[in-house]
Amino acid sequence: MAEQIVAYTLGKNLYLNITNRCTNNCLFCIRHTVEGVGYDLWLKHEPSLEEVLAAVPDPTRYQEIVFCGYGEPLMRLELVRKAAEQLKQMGARIRINTNGQANLIYGRNVVPELKDLVDTVCISLNAQSVARYVEICRPIYGEKAYQAVLDFACCCVGKIPRVVLSVVQWPGVDVERCREIARKLGGEFRLRRFTGTLN
Ligand code: SF4
User: Fold this and answer.
1) Closest CA to 154 of 199, 116, 120, 123
2) Which of 102, 126, 143, 172 is in Cβ range 3.0-4.6 Å of 74 for a Cys bridge?
3) Helix, strand or coil for residue 88?
4) What is the pLDDT of residues 128-165, one digit of tens each?
């Protein structure tokens, strides 16, 4: 089977590249940049649970094990649950970087299924309004995606130990309004700077 990168290190963390699928197509998506994250994260096939676990022989060597992509990790909810469960038993601290649309994707609240498996959820808020979100993130669900992200964050607060709402500094994004939204939702706020070169 062809080689592909399922896990890669950045700083003290190990990142798991489990899917290239996503329900958004953000203008600033790293998939559209020349540099990416410095690794070729285009998958030839989505890794199985066995392949994911084989990529993390000792999770305690890392500060966090992060489910991410080049894509939306919760497109693979079952794999995330099963892998997180096993990695947690091995002593891992688990983070999920998500677009926050999982409840919309599955048509149910999936947060209870992640409770006790996930230490941190980092949700891409990305905009201060529906209109701006649609313009920047171009969700397949259209306008209802933004409210779904806010509702998902609400569901996570109090269930997942650490909830972070993030925003990429991008033209038209009102960072202070986003910070206020995060505060009202009860989450932490993180501003990320866009450093890539778009294709
Ligand atoms: S949510 Fe993330 S993976 Fe999906 S398009 Fe936006 S930046 Fe890319």
Assistant:
1) 123
2) 102
3) helix
4) 999 999 999 999 999 999 999 999 999 999 999 999 99
Ligand 1 contact via 123 beta carbon (within 6 Å): no
Pocket lining: 124 vs ligand 1, CB cutoff 6 Å:
yes
Residue-range domains of the chain with CATH: 7-192 (3.20.20.70)
Return the residue matching tokens 């920047």.
Answer: 136
Could you identify the atom of ligand 1 that is nearest to the CA of residue 70? Answer: 3
Phi, psi of 157 (to 5 degrees): -60, 125
CA nearest ligand 1 atom 5, residue: 25
Identify whether the C-beta of residue 62 lies closer than 8 Å to the C-beta of residue 13. Answer: yes
- Compute the CA torsion angle 4, 10, 16, 19 (nearest 10 deg): -70
Distance in Å, CA 166 to ligand 1 centroid: 12
Which pair of structure tokens corresponds to residue 23? 């329900």
